[in-house]
Amino acid sequence: MSPSASSTRSSSPPVVATLTLGCKLNQAETQQAARELQRHGCVTIDRPSRADAFLINTCTITHVADRKARRLVRLAHKLSPRAPVVVTGCYAERDAAALAKLGNIEVLPNSRKQDAASTLLSALDGAEPASGNFTTSVDRTRAFIKIQEGCDDVCAFCIVPYVRGRERAVPIDEIVRLAHERVAEGVQEIVLTGTQPGAYGRDRSDGTTAGALIEALLSDTDAPRIRYSSIQPQDITPQLLACWDDARMCRHFHLALQSGSDAVLARMRRRYSAEQFQDAVRRIRAAVPGASITTDIIAGFPGETEADHQGTLSMMRELRFTDVHVFPYSQRPNTSASLLDDDVPPDIKRSRAAALRDLGERHRRDALQERVGAIESVLFEDAQAGLTDSYLPVRVQSSEDLTNQLRSVRIMSVQEPQEATLVGELLG
């Protein structure tokens, strides 16, 4: 805000709601924008509420994500009809025209996402501040740091390369600098994220690799925890797995399976076979005892037969993922799969997705039960609840506020109200 405009405002700082849909990369970019807004005197909140301005970072991975983005824009207009609204992210990149129809908003494609904070600050000049009690909400527990953007793989179903472009790695020294800043702020966990984190450095010719990045972070920063989870089977190298010899590396790997059928994987244009995926999981479990392995699966991809579906269920039974995110296939424009006949009826997609989720939930509960009696390192995200380094939820009873503390916890039981969680007791 300009000095002259700032002097005409009341003493209350402007409130900006920074709202994120979609992936951890979006969360990293929203966190960065929120920090910039705070440096200019704004209060940021990460929930829909009355505010002086809104930043909405969108996703377009499915048609449901598109619908959520439009709903959030309408909600912002309803909460604060005169507040400026900046919409950015992948849906803004893909269909700015559809968003522009929703009223008085400014749409910034991904190529201009870095301008979101400055655009909002300009729009706030002379605005009357919102009333109410607000708390600045940049996460001081876990910090998401973007290490790369874009993807060169161009899987048949995925719109991300269209909206994010080609792979571009952030230099290692820049990532280390950002990690230093976040640790100095009191952050306990650095989460490395990107469109294709496992391919980090593939666009460079100087020997930059994910393993080299993690080695630099381990040697040059005091980050208590480093989380690097979203990778592909072909990215599991001995150099990478050796990084987990350091206890600061979180024992959580997210490998997107998508299908257990080689025929479906080929149509999806994935870069591995079912056997290669299984081999990657075995190598992780041999190198990193106690690791959680989570995955994504698409139900009802074009041409998927009942035998293909059963093959995916069979692989799930063999590999027993800690958690599974299941998505019924959603046709996306500008993808090669959109040229295929979407020949799996919606009711079959739903029934297959339900079967995959049911099996995944049983395996998740088994994985939690296996932790009973173990001693886990837990980073508390609020007064009494947190996450193990293997990304499992834990609750404890304590008279002290444990927020942003790393504590050792003995796991006593599994609590199953609606979503199962571990219950533990503090040690020391």
Task: Jot down its keywords.
single chain; 428 residues; alpha/beta; Rossmann fold; Transcription Regulator spoIIAA; 4 domains; five-stranded parallel sheet; five-stranded mixed β-barrel; 18 strands; 36% helix; globular; disordered N terminus
Walk me through the structure.
The protein contains 14 helices and 18 strands. 36% of the residues lie in helices and 21% in strands. The chain has four domains: 122 residues, 3-Layer(aba) Sandwich (Rossmann fold); 111 residues, Transcription Regulator spoIIAA (2-Layer Sandwich), CATH 3.30.750.210; 119 residues, 2-Layer Sandwich (Transcription Regulator spoIIAA), CATH 3.30.750.200; 52 residues. The termini are far apart. The strands form four sheets. A five-stranded parallel beta sheet has the order 2-1-3-4-5, with helices on both faces. A five-stranded mixed barrel has the order 14-15-16-18-17. It has a four-stranded mixed beta sheet with strand order 7-6-8-9. Helix 2 packs across helix 6. A hairpin with a 4-residue loop joins strand 14 and strand 15. The N terminus is likely disordered. By secondary structure, it is of the alpha/beta class.
